[in-house]
Amino acid sequence: MSEKKPFITLEQARQIIADVPTPFHLYDEAGIRANARRLKQAFAWNKGFREYFAVKATPNPYIMQILQEEGCGVDCSSYTELLLSEACGFSGSDIMFSSNETPVQDMRKAYDLGAYINLDDLTHVDFLEQVAGIPETICCRYNPGGVFALGNSIMDNPGDSKYGMTEEQMVEAYTRLMAKGAKEFGIHAFLASNTISDDYYPELAGILFRLAVRLHNRTGAKIKFINLSGGVGVAYKPEDRDNDILAIGEGVRKKFEEILVPAGLGDVAIFTELGRFMLAPYGCLVTTAIHEKHIYKEYIGVDACAANLMRPAMYGAYHHITVLGKENAPCDHKYDVVGGLCENNDKFAIDRMLPRIDRGDVLVIHDTGAHGFSMGYNYNGKLRSAEVLYKADGSHMLIRRAETPADYFATLDCTPFYSKLKL
To answer: What's the CA gap between 304 and 289, in Å, rounded?
Structure first.
């Protein structure tokens, strides 16, 4: 079994806690930058390569600006994400807008920003023209149907997915868009989530590269870029292997040389839209043990809850836990590590072997840098936690304060009750 090591020590955690009480999400700037550079290196063979970070994974402007400095664009799926990206200085081809069941306001904003708009359905061709207009460069999302498998392993079921168009619809969309003034086209698809396999991206690339050749031959459309979207996962469990992004990039290159170059499409740019891979391992939830309970099982209660990290409660997802200062102690106690929601699924770990935990111990819950804070909510009146950046020079910076009761009640300011609240 491999080790999972936190990127902070107990002493460093205590220095941060002196300024920002637990719970809080903590992000590792040095790790984020190094990972962005590895990704760029992996696809350096493609002149037009660009990563469009999935904003939904970690919608914090400080994180987005770090990635912007590393050459990344952003992938947005809502009006609010577009506003946040605009505030961070992204515009035009810096933005990929991939949305579905899209409101008018969202589509107009994407058009006004000059973003690459990724149409999810054939009916959206007319919808886009009616509410905004047809840009010269436009993308369409593909759904091949059926199941997606690597070898004998089924990875996901695109046929049950609400996203994307059939190939015949792609042909019709391109034809109609060209008639309306579009000149260059993109192809996008997302077939599986959180894959721990170096084969996923190359296999997906092969599917999309062959589609690009067919679409080009059938419609005459100029294919400007192919967006492999997300799906490259991370090793949440210590026994899982990390994806090798350099091997993944090389696998995609081989498919590119095999399929696109002979078809005269060797100038196509490759895009990615990674969220989990870019951020998950470089964030953690820092929480303090505040209670213990001894009934039919042994419980450790912490000051974080599922409102701070939904994935274990929602999916039964595994997140590794380190007790800071006890990294080398024997894992000879079996605990459920739980939060304070009035829901029995509010558990960060079930029957987990850990060192003895005492009240006041600081726990690090690993791999929360993506889809951690962003999936937070206010059930039971719980307030969203702070976010802190652990900077490359060893200092720390508050990049989002914790919510207060005033924040929770702010949307009641349209009612007479607001003035009666004791805030």
So the answer is: 9
How high is the pLDDT of residue 422? 79
* pLDDT tens, residue by residue, 86-95: 999 999 999 9
Domains along the sequence of the chain with CATH: 29-280 (3.20.20.10), 281-412 (2.40.37.10)
DSSP bridge pairs for 91: none
pLDDT in the model for residue 140: 97
Strands 95-98, 333-338: pairing is unpaired
Helix/strand/coil (H, E, C) string of the chain? Answer: CCCCCCCCCHHHHHHHHCCCCCCEEEEEHHHHHHHHHHHHHHCCCCCCCEEEEEHHHCCCHHHHHHHHHCCCEEEECCHHHHHHHHHCCCCHHHEEEECCCCCHHHHHHHHHHCCEEEECCCCHHHHHHHHCCCCCEEEEEECCCCCEEECCEEEECHHHCCCCECHHHHHHHHHHHHHCCCCEEEEECCCCCCECCCCHHHHHHHHHHHHHHHHHHHHCCEEEEEECCCCECCCCCCCCCCCCHHHHHHHHHHHHHHHHCCCCCCCCEEEECCCHHHHHHHEEEEEEEEEEEECCCEEEEECCCCCCCCHHHHHCCCCCEEECCCCCCCCCEEEEEECCCCCCCCEEEEEEEECCCCCCCEEEECCCCCCCHHHCCCHHHCCCCEEEEECCCCCEEEEECCCCHHHHHHHHCCCCCHHHCCC
Which residues are CB-neighbours of 17 under 8 A, at least 6 positions away? 286, 288, 362
Q: What is the pLDDT of residues 15-27, one digit of tens each?
A: 999 999 999 999 9
Cβ-defined contacts of 407-412 (< 8 Å, 24+): 407/383, 408/378, 408/381, 408/383
Could you give the CA distance from residue 236 to residue 332 in angstroms, rounded to a whole number?
Answer: 21
pLDDT at 1: 41
Low-confidence spans in the chain with pLDDT less than 70: 1-2, 151-156
Return the axis-axis angle of helices 104-113 and 79-87, rounded to nearest 10°: 30
Task: Give CA separation, 87 vs 59, 71, 91, 221, 229, in Å.
Answer: 12, 17, 9, 34, 24
Q: What is the pLDDT of residue 156?
A: 64
